[in-house]
What we know:
- Among the domains are: 7-96, Rossmann fold (3-Layer(aba) Sandwich), CATH 3.40.50; 223-328, 3-Layer(aba) Sandwich (Rossmann fold); 634-714, Rossmann fold (3-Layer(aba) Sandwich), CATH 3.40.50.10190; 756-863, 3-Layer(aba) Sandwich (Rossmann fold), CATH 3.40.50.
- 33% of the residues lie in helices and 10% in strands.
- Mean pLDDT is 72; it is low at 1-5, 203-233 and 465-632.
Amino acid sequence: MADKEEPSRLFGLCAFTFVPNNELTENLITELANSIVKYGGQVFQRKRDGSLPLSQVTHIISNTIDFPEYTEATAMMIPVVRSKWISASLAKGKQVQIRPFTPDPRMIFSDVMLSCGDIPPTDKEAIIGATMAMGGMDSENVTKLTTHICALTMDHPKCQLSLLKKTGCKIVLPHWFDDCFKLGKRIDEGPYLLPNPEILRVRPEDNIEPPSSAHLEGATSARPDYLPAPPDTESRPTLTVFNGKKIMLSADLAIRDRLKGIILDLITSGGGELTGNVDECDWFVCQYRDGSEYIRASHLGKSVGNLSWLFYLITHNAWTSPLRRLLHYPIPRDGIPGFKDLRITVSNYGGEARIYLENLITAIGATYTKTMKADNTHLITARDNSEKCEAARDWNINMVNHLWIEESYAKCEMQSMTTGKYVHFPPRTNLGEVIGQTFFDESRLQALYYPGGPEKPTAASIRKRKALEMTDENSFAGGPAEGVVIGRQAHKDFDVMKDTDVEYAEKTTEAFGVPAPQKRRANQAQFTTPARARHVRTGKENETPSTVSSSGRSAKDKALGRLSDLASDIALYEKEKKRGLKDGHGPWGGKRAADFIDREHLNRRSVSSPTAAEENDQESKLEKRPAKKARQSLPDIETRVILTGFKRWVNDKNKEDADRKKLRELGIAVVLDGQPCDYLVAPQLVRTVKFLRNLSKGALVLSSTWIEDCLDTKQVPNPEDYILKDKENEKKFGLKLENSVRKARENKGKLLWNIPIYCTSSIKNGTDSYQAIAEANGALFMVYAARSGITIKPTKPEEDEGGPEPVYLLSTATPEEKKLWKKFEDMARRGNMEPRVVASDWLLDVVMKQEVSFDKKYLVTNFFS
Ligand SMILES: *[C@@H]1O[C@H](CO)[C@@H](O)[C@H](O)[C@H]1NC(C)=O
Ligand SMILES: *[C@@H]1O[C@H](CO)[C@@H](O)[C@H](O)[C@H]1NC(C)=O
Ligand SMILES: *[C@@H]1O[C@H](CO)[C@@H](O)[C@H](O)[C@H]1NC(C)=O
Ligand SMILES: *[C@@H]1O[C@H](CO)[C@@H](O)[C@H](O)[C@H]1NC(C)=O
């Protein structure tokens, strides 16, 4: 079988989009795009609203993670790769591995393919967990692709094999991983290399028996737990995620003292502490869903997660609920009932998605098999067409999509395979697109693993329950940015008020112990992403790195370059099948072929791929909660409203809860951002993100007296009688709300269509609100910082009939921002555009009026003087 794909098909079925920066210039992009097209791929431009066409692409080429869609892309498991990936693939004549090309600086192990030698199983789990959290991969056996073997001595057969075969992979003590983990940086392996590692030699006085490896043998008593950490290297930036938190590491983790020490350091230096007392802790970290401590912690409403979760928090320095990603929660010791004897294989999922499914299959208690054989019970596939699917039909193997296993795991109960959604395969969609979005059903976990409750509910458990109820009704808050009121920057002629939704945000935040997310993007679809943790099993071939596919893993399967290099395999399969029939083996010929195809395929990959798997481990915040559960007694929701600036509830959460309930009983749901609504309700004209965004959509604005009247009369008066009138503020802003709404409807959200609006990254109150407002009106919003390499694409002078097009920079007047002005203006002029450095009021006024206009008074130089 040919080892190389036909060159013209190298990028067949792949669709790319680019994120330019100073390294990846427009010229370079043009060049790369030409190559891509030449080799069968497609290139998509940004959408008209300036965002990346995530739903269309299979790869994002970017040399930075500093772009708004990054989180969402990784959540969708769309690989984000450096531009060098293209040249490397071209050079090799095939798509090379994705993971080593991640632009994410936190993925310090992105090119590490680890195999563990003689280290105790619990340590192994922890080391693999940490490695994967930082972009690395793991394989059971040593292969050509293995870059590191983690061992305490050279005695393990893997080490011997590696020496014998001169694989050139590095044999390191676990301490290397520990120290990298501690530092958040990758340090040189030199001092940690076996045999005779320097770190064991230089401090012979330390508790460890030096230096002969024989003394480390057995590794239980002589586990080098007591080694000093490397003295000098600068450590990772201080973590903030642990600030003020008490963390308890369960005994079932049994991690080495040394690693524990490092975790302890990271926690305490970030202002947290370790505790041995469940009642006292905020977060409880354990391996299994059992034991009195697990139960107690759960009853008390603590956050309960496993090591992968903890590593995730450390790597990303951001809080996330352990319930949001299936692989962040402790595993059921004996799996989920009914899965024990299942043998499950996977098709049409690549990269991260495949690794995730493998781990999920293992966690649920079933057996994952790389190849498909007649004794497989299930095939999980993203699409209804692949050679495995055909064989599955031949052999009567159950075929489902990943939702089946995700939901079974989340609900802790095997879901019926006849449920429509598990066997639905939209023809032109790869379901990989929606993987990793399932999260736990907490009530099921409770019913099964920690039934009952604490004797006395604690404040934390009540808060948590409330928060859950609330988020059940409403999708997760769209982030605090949306609730922030944008006030006048210098002139105090408009009263700044706090949006009541800030209350929601705070409430949720507090209840989940989430630090208020700082970065949120308007309109961002939020997904959860699986955290992969467990090592990846290799199948029968010792020489293959398992789940590695040669193509990038992608949202859409038209993507799977893998399929393109399967063309010949499929032909072979057809041939085999025919031959099988002819030879009298009946349809079973297909089985051999399918096995063969998988093996062949993997071998080929191992030749091409320098290292392990694909995309990085980035994850996004999940904002969606499960579909709401209708309470039987409640009427259908007739009206959905968004409230902004509603004063009645400020500082009175009890009242708010009661009122929301009352409204709900009247068929009115107060929805949070991100959900469609019928009306925007406000006491007056306010310049909140919500108000402006909804106004931009042409939402009808009602006066909050409508809500008051509903509450007071327990009736629902006709909303159209309550259209907001606010003469005073209309005058202040020089507009008529009625006109604004009408224009908004005409503008259809395109008021600022394609107008570039930059915003200084250090602008007061952050860029998010402005971004949300600008993007709601179709602007191209970009953050501008000193180091940002953003350039304006020059327009040709002759195109500018009416003089140069304006380009805006929103700025306040701090010295830091002032420094940027000149740079911005120069850049704009070079691009034949007219720079306008303005106060954000310009944007707010324009949006409020739904009319693009400009006045010199908005220029920062005038506005702040
Ligand atoms: C965390 O749990 C998941 C399953 O929920 C498992 O795959 C993973 O290996 C665990 N991580 C660690 C480090 O034990
Ligand atoms: C920033 O937000 C605070 C409170 O939300 C507000 O009082 C202040 O006026 C805002 N500042 C600017 C420059 O918008
Ligand atoms: C690893 O190698 C051993 C011996 O070489 C083999 O028996 C085993 O099946 C391999 N394991 C995997 C998961 O490939
Ligand atoms: C109102 O704004 C919120 C976000 O601020 C958005 O989720 C919602 O869809 C908007 N509603 C309408 C009718 O545009």
